[in-house]
Amino acid sequence: MKQIGLRSVVLLVLVTFFAACAGFFIFEYAVFGDDWAKFPSNRHLYNNGKLFKAGTITDRNGTVLAQTIDSVRYFNSDRQIRMATIHAVGDLEGKVSTGAHSAFWRKLTGYELLNGTYNVSGRGNDMQLTLDANLCVAAMKELGSYSGAVGIMNYKTGEIICMVSTKTFDPNNPPEDSTDGIYVNRLLSGRYAPGSIFKLVTATAAIDYIPDIFERTFTCERGVEIEGEWVSCLYRHGKINFKDALTQSCNSVFAQLAVELGRDKMTKTAEKLGFNSTITVDGIKCARSSYEVSGARNIDLAWSGMGQYNDIVNPMQYLRFVAAIANGGVAPKPTFVKSVTTPYGLNINFKFPGGGERLMSKSTANTLSDMMRNNVLHNYGESNFRGLELCAKTGTAEIGEQRPHSWFVGFSRTKPYAFVVVAENAGSGITVAGRIASRVLSQLP
Amino acid sequence: MEQIYHIYYTYFLAVSRWLLPLFGLIFTCQWIRCLMALRYQPVSLGALVSPEGKRFPLTAHESSVGGGSTADVAIPSLNRRRKCAVIVKKDEWYIYKTLASQEVKLNGQPIDRVSQLEFGDILQFGDTEYKFMPPSAGDCKQKPKKAQKASAGALMFWLIIFQIVMLLQLLLKFYPEIPPGLPIAFLSLFLIELVYFFIRKAFKDPNILAEMQAFFLVTIGLGICTTAAPATLIKQAAAVVLGFLGFVALWQLLKSPDRAMKLRYIFGGGAVVLLILNLIFGKQIYGARNWIDLGIITFQPSEFVKVAFIAAGSAALYRLLATRNAILFMGFSAFLLGCLALIRDFGGLLIFFVTMMVIIFLRTGDIKTIIAISALAVTGGVALIVIMPHISSRFKVWRHVWEYANSTGFQQTRTLTAAASGGLLGVGGGNGYLDRVAASDTDLVFGIVCEEWGLILGLCVLASFILLSFYAFKFARNAKSAYYSIAVCATAALLLFQAALNIFGSTDILPLTGVTLPFVSNGGTSMVASFGLLSFFKGCAVNQGGARV
C-alpha cells in the first residue's frame, strides 16, 4: 500500500497542470478582460454591434453630443454638430478608435473588474468633454473641402476646446466606403511634412545654443550654397538678422543654422520638444512626430532645419509645443475630458495637478513668443487677428509634385488659447491655413 | 404588482450578488477545514517477528513483503526489486504469493497461490523464518491528539443558505413566469441532501465531503439549467435523483473489496457491450456519434463506460503483484479507445486516455511503459488531427479565437466576452446572454457561471475539482484495499482532466473539445455518470484503515 500511496503523487502532477491553466486564465482575465467585454457581440453593451449602454456625452456648454434613450444611442440632432464632433465623440462600432466611445469605453459604460457590466441603475457614467461644439462646427466649415485638422487648446489648463478632423462623416448616415481616412482623427493621428513651422524648432535650438544669435547677420542670395549644393529661398533677403529671418521665413538662414548646430544639437532640441516620442491625450496615443537625421548629409540637415527632408509632424504634438511657448515654456497636459459622473453624481475623472512638462526655459519661450508676435505684426497682418495679440508661424510643406500642405500655428496673448491648423494639399500657409485660423479664432469664446 | 416584484428583484439582486460568492467562498473554506480535520493514524493489525525478536508491524489491510523500502514490510535480507508476498486482512488473514522467484513457505509448506494465515504461523521468506504474531501496544507510535473542530453540519448549513439565496434570486427574476421545474428541482435537491445528511449522521459517518462538493456543483448546474434550458429542469432533477440512487447502490455494491474484485469482469464486459451497442446504434449530435436513442430517452453510453472502466481497471494489491504487467488491462483500454475513435468522440477519447495512463501508472509504477504509450499516443493524435477535419479545425483556431470570432471561434469568444461581462460578482441569474449560444448549457457552462454568478463562484467551481483531487490523494494512501486507492485516484484524475477540457477549452486555454463539466453541465447521462463516479470517492472514504483521530 505504501507504494500505491507514493504513486498517487501522479494526481498532484495533474493538479499542477490544472492549476497552471487556471492561473493562466486568471492572468488573461485580468489583462484582457476589458478587451473581451468590448466585443461588439456583447449584448450587455452592444445592440446589433452598436454600443448602447453608455452615459450621456456633452460638450463644455452642456450640449448633448450622444445619449442613450431606451437602449438606443442617439447623437446630437444637428448634422453639423454630429460631423464636427464625431472624431472626438467616436462612432458606436469602434471605427474611430480614438473617439470617446472607443477610447473611454470603460468610463462611459462603467465597466470594471468587480461588477463587470452590471450596475444597479442600469446605465453608464456621464461624460462632459472640454470641447465647444459651436467652435468645432465653425472650424469644420472653414476647413471646407480640404482634408485637415484644427486644434485649439487652452495653454494654461491643457483643455482642448476645438478638435476637428476632415474628411468627416455623419454617424447617422455613415458612408458605404470609408476611403479618405474619414475614421482617422487627423489632429491626434495625422502625420505630415511640417514645412516652415519647423523653423520654430530650429529657432529654439539656435536661441539655446548660439549665444550671439541676435547680433549676427546672415546673407540670403535667394538661397544659399551648402557644400556645393543649393538651398533655395523664395526671396532674395540680402543681409538679414535672425528675428527678421523667422518673420520672412528665410530658408537660407535656417539652412545655415541647422548645419551650424549640427545633428546632435538639432536632434536633442527636437526630442526635448516632443519629437521621436509618443504623447498621449487622456491616455490616447497620438501619432509620433519624427526628426531623424542620423544618416543625413549636411545638405539634408539644412533642409531638415526648415521642415523638409524627412521631418514629420503630428498636429497635436505641435500644438502642445506651441502651447508651451505661450505658457512660459511649460507644456500643459492635453485633455478633452472635463468630467466623468457616475449615476450617483460622483465625479470619477481624477486629475492630478501639475501634469505639465517643461519643454524649454522661460526666457527661450518668451523670446520665441516675441519673435512669433513680430511675425504677425510685420508679415501676416494684425488686422486679420484683431484683439487677439496673436503670435504665430506659417508653414508651406512641399511634398513632391502635389500642392503643399498649408500650416498655421500660434497662440493668442489676450485669450489663453494655442492653435494648430493644417490643410492638406491646400497651398501656401498664410493664404489657406492662416485664413481658416483668422475666421475660427474670431469666434473664440 | 409585477412592478413591485421587479423592484424587490432589483434590490435583492444588488445584495445577493455579493452574498452568493461570499457563501460559496465560506463553503469552500469550511470544506477545506473539514478535510484537514479528518485524520487517520496507523494501527497495528499484526506483526512479523524475526528470529532475533525484531517486530515488523502490519498496519495496512494489504501489506506487501519485500526487500526494498517501498514494501510495507521491509525485510532487509530479501530481494530489493520484487515483493515476494502480500499479507491481506479480510475477515480472516491470508497470504498471497507473488511472481517473485523467492519461495515463500507457510509452516514449512510452499504456498501455491494463496493460503489462510493464523497468528502463530511460521512464514519463511528466502532463508529467514518469521513468526506471524498478534499486534502489540508498542507497534505504532501514537501521535498526540490534536483538537480539530470542523463539523459537516456547518458545511451543510452554508450549502443550504447558498442554495436558498440562489433559489430566491431566480424565483424573483422569473416571476410571474417561474419555470415549474425550478422549485421542483431545488426542492428535490434539498430533500436528497438533507435526508442523506441526517442518515449519515445517524451512521456516524465522519466523511461526507465528496458528496457535499457534488451537491455544491449540482446547485450551480441547476442555476445554469434554469436560465439556459428551463424546460429541461425536471429532467435534470430526475437525473440528479437517479444519479444519487445509483451512487448509493454502486457504493454498497463495492463495499467489500472481494466483491469489487469479482465484479471487475462484469463491469469490463458491460463497458465493451455498451460501446459496441454505441457503434451499431449510435447517433451523431455535434460531430461525435456518441448518442443512443431509445425513443423515450437518448443517452450517451460513453458516460457510463467511464464508471465501468474505472471499476474494471482498479485492482487489489495481491492481484497487482501476481501479474507481471497490465497487458489485459491495456488490451481492454485499447479496445475502448478504438471504439471511441470510431464514434469520433475526441474529448471522450482524451479523457479515457489520461485515466488509462493514471491507472497503468498506479498499477505498475512503470514509467517506461507510460513513456512508450505516450509516444504512441502523440503519433496517433497527430494522425487523428490530420484525418478528422472537425478536429483539425479546432486546433487551427486554438489560441487564435478572435481571428475566427464569427466562425470556429464563435463559442470561445462568446464565452470570454460573457465571463468578462460578469466581473467578479456576476450580473445575476438569468441576466446573461451566453445561454443563447448553442450548446452553452453543456460545453460553455463555465462562461455562464462567470457571467451570471461571477468569477469568484467560477473559481469556486475550479477549486471543487482541485479539492476532490486532494481528497483522493489524502484518502488513497490509507484505504483498506489498493482497489479503492486506484479507483479514487483514477476518478479524481478523470474528473479533473474532464473539467480542464471543459473549462479551459471554452476559455481558449486548451483546444475546445466539447465535453461536459461533471455535475454542472445540463444533461442526464452526464449527471448520472458523475454520481456513479462519486461512489469511488465514497468507497475509498468508508474503507479507511487505521484509527480516526
Q: Which labels suit this protein?
A:
heterodimer, A: 445 residues, alpha+beta, Beta-lactamase, five-stranded mixed sheet, 14 helices, globular, B: 549 residues, Tumour Suppressor Smad4, 2 domains, six-stranded antiparallel sheet, 17 helices, 16 strands
Task: Describe the fold and architecture.
The complex is a heterodimer of chains A (445) and B (549). Chain A has 445 residues and is of the alpha+beta class. Chain A has a domain at 198-272 and 293-309: Beta-lactamase (3-Layer(aba) Sandwich), CATH 3.40.710. Chain A has 14 helices and 20 strands. In chain A, the strands form seven sheets. In chain A, strands 5-4-3-6-16 form a five-stranded mixed sheet. In chain A, a hairpin with a 2-residue loop joins strand 4 and strand 5. The model of chain A has no long low-confidence stretch (mean pLDDT 93). Chain B is α+β, with helices and mostly antiparallel strands. Chain B has two domains: 2-37 and 153-548, no CATH class; 46-133, Tumour Suppressor Smad4 (Sandwich). Chain B has a six-stranded antiparallel sheet with strand order 3-2-12-11-8-9, with no helix packed on it. In chain B, helix 4 runs antiparallel to helix 15. The longest helix of chain B has 36 residues, at 2-37. Chain B starts with a helix and ends with a strand. The mean pLDDT of chain B is 91. The chains are: A alpha+beta (445), B alpha+beta (549). At the A-B interface, helix 1 and helix 2 of A face helix 1, strand 4, helix 10, helix 13 and helix 15 of B.
Gist of the model:
Chain A is built from 14 helices and 20 strands. By secondary structure, chain A is of the alpha+beta class.
